[in-house]
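quick one, 373 residues, struct below
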Amino acid sequence: MSTAEVVAHLTTAHPRDDVRIFHKECTSLAAAGFQTHLLVADGKGDAERNGVRVHDIGMSRGRLQRMLLQPWRMWRAARRLPARLFHFHDPELIPVALLLRWGGRHVIYDAHEDVPRAVLSKYWIRPWLRRTVATLFEALEDFAARRFSAVVAATPHIARRFARLNRRTVDINNYPLPSELADGVQAATAGRSVCYIGGIGLIRGALEMVSALEHVDATLLLAGAFENAGTEARLRALPGWRKVNYRGSVSRAEVRRIMAASRAGLIFFHPEPNHVDAQPNKMFEYMSAGLPVLASDFPLWRSLLEDAGAGRCADPLDPHAIAACIAALLDDPVQAQAMGERGRRAVHSVYHWAHEEKKLVQLYRDVMDEVPA
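---
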């Protein structure tokens, strides 16, 4: 294989088995014939898997070292590769990416999130400093995006922002792989259980979901890790907790059993900047199991669920609205089952990785047909 076909993905913030980076993008590119490298910073050593060569630059100690020291380690490691195209995934690697671009390499920026808006809710940045950090970072990101070979965006919303900066902007949605789907699961048609599976935190609507149980005849099958001990104690003290069946952190097999015992899947994230325009995998996993989805009333989520006819939305900050949404679905089993089946069909016909894989491979071919600037 020629040097022109060698490509490399760079990340200092994500694990080597990250679903989007490794299992979706890198594995798809290797299968399409690219000699694919992945540079990570986890201290686990070099390896090769799924046709992808993994290079470890060494683990950092803490967020500050990761953001200040690791980019330069990544720069040294990247320069040694014979790749003509580099695809990076972390905002702190923008200076490295610019150096690679100015050195005559193709560079693709993978925008996983709308970082300037996400900064506004980062707990580790002092509140009074967040808007200044967001403004300065957006200026840097805009400057860099104009100079990269292409921008890959994880959602259409993020793609619209970058399309005004770089004509070669493509949304590569984080739609699920077949292995992420719950095919074969048959959602419950009796009982009054609903489920939430995932990280359990306040901005993910845990308080409102448990509080809603005070106002509806339903049981919540809850699985996942609490964000901290304080959140767990606060939830367990709520009157609605008596209607929670907490399963802890569970295996994939147990996830399937929980969904098979449920009438609907809940996703009532708060309207944080990084949530409103996200497309959570959990939504598509619920749909693949034939579960109607009850979700936050964000425009993107409402549009997705209404287009598929696969669920209902409610104000995620209002426990009474969430309770009414749950009750309406549980009280209409025929409609609930129809929603679930429509959602399952939508995942298999529209919302799956095969569509996005084709767009990614075509983007690479288009970019590599050009002479780097």
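The longest helix spans residues 127-145.
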